[in-house]
Amino acid sequence: MEHTKILLDENEMPTHWYNILADFPEPLAPPLNPATREPIKPSELEPIFAKELIKQEMSPERYIDIPQEILEIYKLWRPSPLHRAHRLEKVLGTPAKIYYKDESVSPAGSHKPNTAIAQAYYNMKEGTEKITTETGAGQWGSALSLSCNYFDIECKVFMVRSSFYQKPYRKSLINLWGASVIPSPSPETQFGRMILEKYPDTNGSLGIAISEAIEVAALNDNTKYALGSVLNHTCLHQTIVGLETQKQFEKTEDYPDIVIGCCGGGSNLAGVSLPYIRDNIAGKTDTRIIAVEPSACPSLTEGRFDYDFGDMAQMTPLLKMYTLGSEFIPPAIHAGGLRYHGASPIVSKLVADGMMEARSYHQVEIFDAAVTFARSEGIAPAPESAHAIKCAIDEALKCKETGEEKTILFNLSGHGHFDMASYDMYFSGKLTNE
Ligand SMILES: *Cc1c(COP(=O)(O)O)cnc(C)c1O
């Protein structure tokens, strides 16, 4: 019988994360202090981030052990299943083999707890009492709320205003695990008040919400800030996703020819793909890696590769990345988690060096793909993940034309149970591309 679901035992779960910084042929361009344009010193980041996370951000170690307390919490839902999408293959009539890694099985419904748990843990170790953060669609806020709850840390979430009102149940989930959440821009910060005065009707953006969360962390002792994506340590923590898939593929006769992930800040894409890129760099494999982003916020496909701020108030260090400009406010598309002006420096470098491809899709076609997937595989995908599904379907249809039996892996970064208002709009024909 052919596999439908490839599972690992708890004791087969990887016990380390993979750090691609150790394998880059040349070092990644360092984050710069915007005033001096000199590389940032670790001590400059300490008011904002836990020391261990700063260390991981710059670490030259290839493998970093996952502490036992983190493994114990991961085990609540990990290892996550790898599925073979037999029914989707049949609907498409493709000779390709389609696999997907199901990160929707975490309590928060996405891959984000993989790094949230780690960040809350290291902050707890260093005595942090409160963590502030931003959230776009609410997935990161709920993942961090879950994680802070486990380590008795207070958590405050600035949620992008358009999502706060579009996704009221994500807000409830954030409250359920004990964090507080307010719409951003908010009157609680200097930057929020300034934006509200200038643009009273703004949808908000991740860039604005990040500025607010950092402002609060910078002004208060024992308060730190956590970022759900973009930074090297978030990509590092997500590599458990790709490392698990490699162990799972060992239980099959297959190995992916193509690995696909949707890209907002780049963390789930990095997580699923970096272990395959490690093998590509080592000359063992020649796996194609594809990043998929929304046409409405196309940093990798249309942005410039340059130093830019991570937030709108220009409080973060300068990061070398593909960016649409830190002042860019993306349209309120339904894939809220992909509305970010930049992309992770690691992912950006891989795209710039031709080690990763990038493409974009409009939102109507990604909802078409989401519905095809839900009606074959059953799972209702997050609109973000539907970008990866659309790309996997396109690649599988190419195989149908050429008769190639390629193996395609994509990351199902999360489920869409809190996105039903968007699905309703799609079914009523009100969902447009802009
Ligand atoms: C946040 C999120 C994304 C985008 O973030 P990345 O850091 O690019 O992975 C994608 N899918 C889901 C389900 C998300 O919650």
From TrEMBL:
Keywords: Amino-acid biosynthesis, Aromatic amino acid biosynthesis, Lyase, Pyridoxal phosphate, Tryptophan biosynthesis. Pathway: Amino-acid biosynthesis; L-tryptophan biosynthesis; L-tryptophan from chorismate: step 5/5. Residues 76-414 form the Tryptophan synthase beta chain-like PALP domain. It is an enzyme of class 4 (lyase). GO terms for cellular component: cytoplasm. It holds the Pfam family PALP. PROSITE patterns: TRP_SYNTHASE_BETA (PS00168). Its cofactor is pyridoxal 5'-phosphate. Its EC number is 4.2.1.20. GO terms for molecular function: L-serine hydro-lyase (adding indole, L-tryptophan-forming) activity; pyridoxal phosphate binding; tryptophan synthase activity. It catalyses: (1S,2R)-1-C-(indol-3-yl)glycerol 3-phosphate + L-serine = D-glyceraldehyde 3-phosphate + L-tryptophan + H2O. The keyword Ubl conjugation does not apply. The modification N6-(pyridoxal phosphate)lysine is found at residue 112. PANTHER family: TRYPTOPHAN SYNTHASE (PTHR48077:SF6), TRYPTOPHAN SYNTHASE-RELATED (PTHR48077). Tetramer of two alpha and two beta chains. The beta subunit is responsible for the synthesis of L-tryptophan from indole and L-serine. Belongs to the TrpB family. This is Tryptophan synthase beta chain. It comes from Methanomethylovorans hollandica (strain DSM 15978 / NBRC 107637 / DMS1). The lineage of its organism: Archaea, Methanobacteriati, Methanobacteriota, Stenosarchaea group, Methanomicrobia.
